[in-house]
Design goal:
Elements lengths: L1 E2 L68 E2 L9 E6 L17 H8 L2 E7 L5 H10 L9 H4 L9 H7 L3 E5 L7 H4 L7 E3 L13 H14 L4 E7 L28 H8 L7 H21 L1 H7 L5 E5 L5 E3 L2 E4 L6 H4 E2 L1 E4 L7 E8 L3 H9 L3 E2 L8 H4 L9 E4 L8 E5 L3 E6 L2 E6 L20 H12 L14 H10 L2 E2 L12 E2 L19
Parallel strand pairs: 3-7, 3-8, 4-13, 5-6, 5-7
Antiparallel strand pairs: 1-19, 1-20, 2-14, 4-11, 4-12, 8-12, 9-10, 15-16, 16-17, 17-18
């Protein structure tokens, strides 16, 4: 096998906090670094699950968990509100009907009419685990270190779940895809229940969205307030295999033989086969079908919280590419089809029908939700609450930064405003004028003055929090079964093939991510 290069990041002890530190008595910020499963993990299942677990495999081993420490800003309300956060993995905004796309999404549209729609929400990282860490922590992905190599974040600043639990919430997560299992991501920090053990369908490596919804509703119904539930759906991720009627909904006249399975699309994605324009249009129709199918899957969860005081947010970690000669993947591209994602928010304090045109990043989600539910934030968060923005006050993030895997060869960097964007790929700079070229077809536009020096600003932000990282435990190992699962999802490239992404790969063994020794300075990313 040829595995993605996973290079470890050096780290040092956390600095003194500027705010009050809260943690277990007698423990410092880097204590308990390899705790195994989070509290409640032994239960492993939301109420209503059959005993015995499934064959989730990676989720049964436990990830790396840094002990959080807090630097709180503000105080909690006397009666903080319930919170539901829904992540629709691999969903790009422009294909959704609620954003003007072809895929019919009546439930998302109805939800949006009851709250706020952000039209320029940008992901900072085009892979699942690190994008969710940015979303849940309010800090840039690179601050967390090489999560796939370590099996968790090296950053001990609190997550949304940890902040909620610190203030008396019951917390749970229901996971739909293997890349968000605890051993793959370490994301169980702060959750009483992290339900990531499920039967893996070898055809698409997911837990079916209807089961995700059922498990989520079961936990929600029995949990006491205040409560926080995170729900992760993996149904839109490659391969593209919607059920009827969505499999023919947007291309009923197709007479070809191409399907959305890995068997058909894997060689195209990996660069060993070509695809016609007609067949590509059919594959995009299958993806759109998955989006409409997913919209129907989440409807019961939206209905269960309608008309209540619950704050509900719906977003995605990243999109998917069907353009730029980079097909059926996302991890090695930073075009808007990959980085522009949906963000919808409903709840008290959100005026129905609000449309926000200012740009925001996924690091803004946690501070925004904390304000809406009435909880304090953490002083180190790089994102900001966008509650004022929903009220027509203030602005968004003038520049949002995105990166591909910085521990691999040839990493990419992007800086974006609402009107312009630059993508750096080694010595190559792609510059787009989004206001006149939203499809990013002309990469020779003049670089906007607002983006000059963006890379130095980004590097400074990462460096500002890098000293807080704790030392990692041992490198995470990949079982042969997990390696095979990742290969089917596009994260591992079969030996002897090339990738249409031009993304770096390195010879290695299937059981061990490659990396530098602890404490070694990572290579320059330029």
């Amino acid at each position: 096998m040829v595995l993605l290069a996973l290079v470890m990041m050096g780290c040092v002890d956390p600095p003194e906090s500027d705010g009050p530190e809260v943690g277990p008595p007698g423990e410092g910020p880097d204590a308990g670094k390899a705790q195994g499963k989070a509290p409640g993990k032994a239960q492993g299942k939301a109420p209503g699950r059959a005993p015995g677990g499934g064959q989730g495999g990676p989720g049964q081993q436990g990830g790396f968990h840094a002990t959080p420490y807090f630097s709180l800003v503000g105080t909690a309300d006397d009666a903080p509100r319930d919170l539901l956060l829904i992540s629709l993995d691999t969903v790009r905004a422009d294909r959704l009907g609620v954003y003007g796309g072809r895929a019919e999404t009546p439930n998302l549209a109805g939800f949006s009419a009851q709250g706020a729609r952000f039209d320029q929400a940008i992901s900072h990282f085009p892979e699942t685990a690190l994008s969710h860490w940015a979303m849940m922590s309010g800090v840039l992905p690179e601050v967390h270190g090489n999560v796939p190599a370590h099996g968790g974040s090296l950053y001990p600043g609190p997550t949304l779940a940890e902040l909620a639990k610190e203030h008396g919430y019951q917390t749970a997560a229901v996971i739909g895809g293997i890349t968000m299992t605890d051993s793959a991501s370490g994301m169980s920090r702060g959750f009483d229940v992290y339900d990531d053990e499920f039967e893996v369908d070898p055809a698409d490596m997911r837990r079916h969205g209807d089961e995700v919804t059922t498990e989520a509703l079961a936990w929600w119904a029995q949990a006491e307030s205040p409560k926080f539930l995170f729900v992760h759906y993996f149904d839109a991720h490659f391969p593209y295999t919607p059920a009827a009627p969505w499999d023919t909904r947007y291309d009923a006249d197709y007479t070809g033989t191409l399907t959305g399975t890995d068997a058909d699309l894997g060689p195209i994605r990996d660069g060993t086969a070509e695809i016609s324009a007609r067949d590509l249009a059919h594959v995009l129709a299958l993806y759109d079908g998955e989006l409409s199918e997913l919209d129907a899957m989440i409807a019961p969860l939206l209905d269960a919280t309608a008309g209540s005081e619950t704050v509900v947010a719906i977003t995605s970690d990243h999109g998917e590419s069907f353009e730029h000669d980079y097909l059926f993947n996302h991890r090695a591209g930073l075009w808007d089809g990959i980085t522009r994602v949906p963000l919808l928010v409903r709840g008290p304090g959100v005026e129905p029908g609000t449309v926000v045109g200012d740009q925001v990043g996924l690091t803004d989600i946690t501070p925004t939700l904390l304000e809406l539910v009435g909880l304090p934030s953490d002083s180190r968060m790089q994102g900001q609450s966008r509650v004022p923005l929903m009220r027509g006050e203030g602005g968004g993030q003038d520049v949002v930064y995105s990166v591909t895997d910085p521990w691999a060869d040839r990493p990419q960097f992007a800086a974006r405003t609402v009107a312009a964007k630059v993508i750096e790929r080694g010595d190559e700079v792609l510059s787009y004028g989004l206001s006149v070229d939203p499809s990013e077809t002309d990469s020779s536009a003049p670089v906007a003055a607002t983006l000059a020096g963006a890379r130095a600003t980004y590097d400074a932000q990462v460096a500002d929090l890098a000293p807080a990282q704790v030392a990692p435990a041992n490198d995470r190992s990949l079982s042969p079964g997990e390696a095979a699962q990742l290969e089917a999802l596009g994260y591992v490239v079969p030996e002897g093939t090339t990738s249409t992404s031009d993304s770096p790969v390195e010879e290695g063994k299937a059981g061990k991510p490659k990396g530098l020794p602890p404490g070694t300075t990572p290579p320059k990313r330029h």
